[in-house]
Amino acid sequence: MKIERIELRELRLPLVHFFETSFGRTTTRRIVLVRVNADGLTGWGEATCGELPFYSYETPDTAWHILRDLLIPWTLGKEWAAPGDVAPCFRPIRGHNMAKAALENALWHIAAQQMNLPLAKLLGGTLTEVPCGVSIGIQNSIPELLEKVAREVAAGYQRIKVKVKPGWDVSVLEAIRNKFPRILLMADANSAYSLADVAHLKEFDRFYLMMMEQPLGWDDLLDHAKLQREIATPICLDESIHNADDARKALEIGAGKIINIKLGRVGGFTAARQVHDVCRARNVPVWCGGMLESGIGRAHNIAMSTLPGFTLPGDVSASKRYWAEDIIDPEVTVSAQGTIHVPETAGLGYAPNLERIEKLTVRKESFE
Ligand code: OSB
Ligand code: MG
Description:
- This protein is of the alpha/beta class.
- It folds into 2 domains: 3-116 and 352-367, Enolase-like, N-terminal domain (Enolase-like, domain 1, 2-Layer Sandwich); 121-341, Enolase-like C-terminal domain (TIM Barrel, Alpha-Beta Barrel), CATH 3.20.20.
- The protein contains 13 helices and 15 strands.
- α1 (60-75) packs across α3.
- The radius of gyration is 20 Å and the shape is globular.
- The two termini are 15 Å apart.
- 52% of the residues are buried.
- Bound molecules: 2-succinylbenzoate and magnesium ion.
- Magnesium ion (MG) binds at residues 188, 190, 213-214, 238, 260, 289.
């Protein structure tokens, strides 16, 4: 495919409810979208960075810079045989995986249309229904959290993840377990603890969690391996895994037993499939993480979640949990069994709503 035009856009999208993690509270998302024109087709990608450099160092402004000044000049006007071919070309840039993923994933969207295949099929996906969980942020009180858990369980979601941090952990898990002894439950600390907290983290074992996500340093593997030897709860790595090599090293030293794959964090579909393959070869389950994506990123997540190693419910859930109105048609919906039906039409299976995208755009730059 020959890339003829690329457009960057930033949208402001207010969340229907604030989302709070151990590193802070988000109320409005700044969504950076990449729109690529090639061979008469249009592909969309999303840079999934947080507003501030707390989950990772990337922000909407760093993604804009890396895309505008490097990735776009490197790809525009050139012929690419396969969408994954841009990944090795992007390698000289250290990190900035969310910026890279936004552009690469737009090319996958184009390739799927060109080949008249659903994106999931082009990626090698096999699932037709994707199992869904939800990620519930830190709330103002435990009763409010319990109400949210009850609502999501009633909606059919297969697994509940709650955010934890020092001071919002054991008492919270205890309250949930008292009320919901049988649900699949897990906790995500987003790096809020250190090895000095081993005794405290051991207490989590009595809640028989499916897993504890990224309890220690955002860039750590070694201490996670030490912690995993001390606790019964399986550790799932999120922040620490940026590519297939990270996954291999993490599994080799026993830093965790499960990996959360995020397209942005690993740099796009090519790297995500490589992480998936490393895990699958070792029988390590993976699941698809979320970054409060708009419908575009969400549609990409759904396609990726169809790969055979995605055996655990992910954080990809219905549009309405985040947005009063999403920017795709139809919006993402979840069945009463807690699954998303994978679109069978060619391409993304969800049409970007151009009128709505235009209305929400706060800046735009195009490159020919
Ligand atoms: O650690 O998985 C995380 C949201 C923003 C940043 C980091 C994380 C999350 C989530 C939300 O847990 C997942 C979602 O519902 O999109
Ligand atoms: Mg996480």
